[in-house]
Design goal:
Layout: E1 4-13, E2 16-26, E3 31-35, H1 42-50, E4 57-62, E5 65-66, E6 77-80, H2 92-102, H3 107-120, H4 136-148, E7 154-158, H5 166-182, E8 186-191, H6 194-200, E9 203-208, E10 211-216, H7 218-223, H8 228-234, E11 238-247, E12 253-258, E13 261-267, E14 279-284, E15 289-290, E16 300-310, E17 314-321, E18 326-332, E19 345-349, E20 355-358
Parallel strand pairs: 3-8, 3-9, 6-7, 7-8, 13-20
Antiparallel strand pairs: 1-2, 1-4, 4-5, 9-10, 11-12, 11-14, 12-13, 14-20, 15-19, 16-17, 16-19, 17-18
Helix pairs in contact: 2-3, 2-4, 3-4
The chain binds adenosine-5'-triphosphate.
Length: about 350
Amino acid sequence: MVTITLQELTKRFSGSVVLSSVDLQVPAGELFFLLGPSGCGKTTLLRHVAGFYRPDEGRIWFDDEDVTRLPAHRRGTGMVFQSYALWPHLNVAQNVAFGLEERKRPRREIEHRVAEALDQVKLQGLGTRKIQQLSGGQQQRVALARALVIRPKCLLLDEPLSNLDAKLRLEMRTEIRHIVKEHGLTAIYVTHDRDEALSMADRMAIMDAGKLVQVGVPQDIYRHPATRMVAEFIGETNFVEGRAMRQSSWAGFYDVETPFGTLRGRTNDGTWQPAAGQPVVLSIRPESLTFGTVVDSSNRIPGHVVDTTYLGATVQYLIQVHGGPLMKVCETNPQEIRLPSEDEVRVMVAMNDVVILRK
Ligand code: ATP
């Protein structure tokens, strides 16, 4: 397992910048996620680590070895593709053995390692099956076994679960994480599925237009998004426009004037301070809004319920804020369900859950 370091990586395709001076370090043994909208450059970044692309500028290091110019087959990376990229004319064992055949390993070693890899992905006994005789989930496992069999320095996964149905996707999340951790592998996993990233990642980066906008552990990114794009991409949220007034009497918190009164919140990491009068946008997650009482909060938002959706474990409300926007409220395990009505309600939010972002 290796520490992967990307240093000021830049890539242009036909003159347009697809990766823009990307700096990133993925420590040995970490399961790291690249998450971002379609076309932001995730696959391009992964392919640079694999060695399929050369950067226009910048360097790639595996530990202290500069691999920027090293061809893919000499990097020792295992790659799993969205399409699986299995050979239909070869059986399961032959598909898995491919990387070892290429490396001209002795026959007995190949047989032993293929059996071991099939065991790891729970496909023992299926070595002689044809690829067409496997389910999508089993094909995905063959692709994983083929990457693992070469005992890679790092594992690179490009949307490996997108072709599976929802139930299988959930199962495979746990399994892939388990395999990566059991082998102590450094892994980079590309997806645009935020639940996959939130539930599996040790750390993750949110990418947008060829740049890493924010890097951190899932909880931090969810609770402390750095920009409006990150806040929206990583989960549902309500945006409220306003104008910063002043630092509040609580260190690190600011009062923001909105069309429906003053809300107190914090910036995402405490390093940025909005100037008095500066236009800002607030991000408030639906589950942090409540009809109950919030201990530390002076944040009360008046409105009325315009829509109620019962979802079993949760109830979602749309609140028309008086003098403000529509806001989504999500209550977990509610005792009482409120129906749409003109009656005024007050939703509350702790000041810690109001994130002030640059507009
Ligand atoms: P998706 O989630 O849709 O797979 P992505 O974030 O992985 O998207 P990339 O596949 O890395 O995005 O593509 C980034 C940009 O680079 C896109 O605009 C794409 O059209 C462009 N691009 C990717 N590969 C090439 C190539 N070989 N030649 C020219 N342009 C390319």
